[in-house]
Write a structure and sequence with these properties.
The chain is about 20% helix and about 40% strand. The protein is an alpha+beta fold. Strand 5 and strand 6 form a beta hairpin.
């Protein structure tokens, strides 16, 4: 197994990433989600190897091929490097989505949207990738793929925005690590962690539901996504309810402490600071330490052969 860790420090003054709570309210994750970080890498790799996002490969958009291969072979984490402010701002938008329009009465269709916005200074992004597996999966759609550590590094250096086009992001440093210090199942972490990975709730940290990528889906769903187009499939929760794979969330423990919460004109403004979180992981998971100070939980099977 060829598992590497790409570590990138990113200047990120403001962003909004998440999902619509209602037609005029957009909720944001407090930190960039694993799926967002992997999507940034997929976009960068597309530029490096000369694939346009809507270019078709065996009748499948290139962006789906790259996203599927990377999501099936990677885990990603965010580490805040500065305090965070979370608030709402009013944004003017033009509704284009037919699926929204047909569900809204014309007289209620407003161009004013309340968007939850996160203000901070800098984050670290850690993406662990099994390069061998990525190349094997890409080999089903591309002739002789041979992504290297250098390609991963260059792909992350192309990051320009996180979220909407006006929310600029600037990579400061990008490093590739292929050696990790194995800490064990108990200790401090400074990135977010899926709640399902811990034995009991830690005393520190903040809980939040986040949209997830393929490797974090339940096995009975993950095992069925054996080709890129199935990323967009719907899962039947019951006879009357379905949910798209891209809408599935999981609870995470964020390495943050709530410093202050205030109400202003009926809206909540929250202030957080970064903290380390003491966790005890379930069997099958371990904490690894990276040379730059990152302490990250991972499945031990994912790391097998790299100790």
């Amino acid at each position: 197994m060829s598992v590497i860790c790409s570590s990138t420090q990113i200047l990120l003054p403001i962003f909004s990433l998440g999902y619509p709570e209602a037609t005029t309210i957009l909720i944001s994750h407090t930190l960039p989600s694993p799926r967002t970080l992997i999507a940034l890498l997929a976009r960068g790799l597309g530029e490096i190897i000369g694939l346009k996002s809507e270019q078709k490969i065996h009748d499948t958009p290139a962006r789906l091929v790259l996203q599927w291969a990377l999501e099936s072979s990677s885990y990603a984490f965010s580490h805040p490097l500065s305090p965070i402010k979370k608030s709402f701002q009013m944004w003017r938008v033009i509704w284009l989505e037919k699926t929204w329009k047909k569900e809204i009465e014309p007289e209620r269709l407003s161009d004013a949207v309340e968007m939850e916005v996160v203000s901070l200074t800098k984050i670290s992004a850690y993406i662990f990738t099994n390069l061998n597996k990525v190349n094997i999966l890409l080999g089903k759609y591309l002739p002789h793929p041979n992504l290297t550590e250098r390609d991963i590094e260059l792909g992350l250096r192309t990051i320009q925005v996180i979220g909407k086009s006006e929310m600029l992001a600037t990579p400061i440093t990008t490093e590739i690590f292929n050696k990790f210090n194995i800490i064990g199942s108990a200790g401090k972490i400074n990135v977010y962690c899926p709640y399902e990975w811990v034995k009991k709730p830690p005393e520190e940290g903040v809980e939040e539901d986040m949209l997830i990528h393929i490797n974090l889906l339940p096995d009975y769903i993950k095992d069925t996504i054996d080709e890129p187009k199935k990323i967009l499939k719907e899962i039947e929760l019951s006879k009357r309810e379905k949910i798209g794979c891209r809408r599935i969330k999981a609870r995470f423990i964020l390495p943050l402490s709530l410093m202050r919460k205030i109400s202003y004109r009926g809206k909540i403004i929250e202030y957080f600071k970064p903290v380390d979180v003491n966790v005890e992981l379930k069997d099958g998971f371990t904490i690894v330490e990276i040379a730059d100070g990152g302490r990250i939980p991972l499945p031990t099977m994912f790391l097998k052969g790299c100790q």
